[in-house]
Specification:
InterPro entries: T6SS_TssK. The structure is a single chain. The chain is an alpha+beta fold. It has one domain. The chain is built from three helices and six strands; from the N terminus they run ββαβαββαβ. The chain has helices at 14-26, 35-40, 72-80; strands at residues 2-3, 9-11, 29-30, 48-51, 64-67, 84-85. A hairpin with a 5-residue loop joins strand 1 and strand 2.
Length: 90
């Protein structure tokens, strides 16, 4: 992936497109108390959104995602002070 001087994507590899699409769907994030139910019931977990990061120095082949900071699942993460990522089977 190459970035132009203004920080916009000038070209993105096919692998990067697949990564940006797959991560929010395949990664399940929740509190440690909810993750088993999220996986067992095939629920999406806390929403992940791909973002272009401009506040930190740009690194090639690095992708940034943000967590949605609202909703019951996010509140449970705050309450338990845990963030759990389910095992990803590729």
């Amino acid at each position: 992936m190459r970035l132009c001087r203004r920080g916009r994507l000038s070209d993105i590899t096919p692998l990067a497109y697949r990564l940006r699409a797959a991560v929010p769907i395949r990664f399940k994030i929740s509190s440690s108390t909810n993750i088993d139910d999220i996986v067992r019931l095939a629920l999406p977990g806390v929403k992940l959104t791909h973002m272009v990061q401009v506040q930190v120095p740009v690194r090639l082949n690095t992708h940034y995602f943000s967590l949605e900071n609202k909703g019951m699942l996010f509140e449970a993460m705050l309450k338990t002070q845990t963030l759990t990522l389910d095992d990803l089977k590729v």
